[in-house]
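Escalated from tier 1: succinic acid holo job.
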Amino acid sequence: MTDVSTTIAGVKFPSCFMNAAGALCVTREELVSLGQSQAGGIVTKSMTIEARQGNPEPRYYGFPGGSINSMGLPNLGYRAYAEMIPELKRFGKPVVASVSGLCEEDFPVIAAAINAAQPDLIEVNLSCPNIPGKPQIGYDPEASERIIKRVRPLITVPMGLKLPPYFDPAHHAVMGEVIGRCGVDFLNMINSVGNGLVVDPEREAVVIKPKGGFGGLGGKIIKPVALANVRAFYKFFEGKIPIIGTGGVVDGVDAFEHFLCGASAVQVGTVLVEEGLEVFGRLETELTEILKNKGYRSIEDFRGAVKEL
Ligand code: SIN
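Tier 2 regenerated the structure:
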């Protein structure tokens, strides 16, 4: 019997596939639909103090191999998600609340209120690239450490960090040290590859409106960056901090590669937006087939076991 369930920081997920914060998870209807789907968990949109409309449209553009977005954290505000959490928990799969903020002071306010609603896990988003004038916190180790240390004592459920992609081993090491000092229960990497630019040569124009067309890249094209970050942090922590691999998962093989690099679960963004909720069934079938063919019974049989040459 092939088993694609997984466990993150002691919390059991019936399937290792779930949505990435941001993909079809803003409204109550979308979150309920995730609950009714084959997704292994329900991840909320990253929430701010007040509800936000987000950036002007067009703010998402899909192209062969990927996507670019600059949504600007459209969300209902933390109070609405706190109210919804008990209802969402009734679907019998973990609810992951994604906490964000527009300034450092927002994080503890939201973290305390959301923790009181007792989602199964809380993910602290340090990596939104799309708020004009607000750099990604995860690229500032001191600010990251201040925020993590402020929210850590307020959170009693497993607490994770959603990280941006890092591109140099020195940055993996610096952030690894910060994380090691702060008592983090799980990691989720990577957020979109921030501040890419996609140009339509026909129209001789950028494809999204905010920030002059700059936005976060997602989809298949970012998979090698995602795998590198999963692998780097898996090795840094010697596999002791569970990792959710996000970035470039479009089919079962992509997920298999994330697990080989050390991920314990994967999240999907671009492919979920493009394909809809049926994607979870397809991914589960494809991964199950791969595991069967290779003689693995579960993800734990090969997690982190990618061979180096
Ligand atoms: C957005 O809302 O702009 C995306 C959120 C994120 O990348 O964290």
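The two ends are 32 Å apart (CA to CA).
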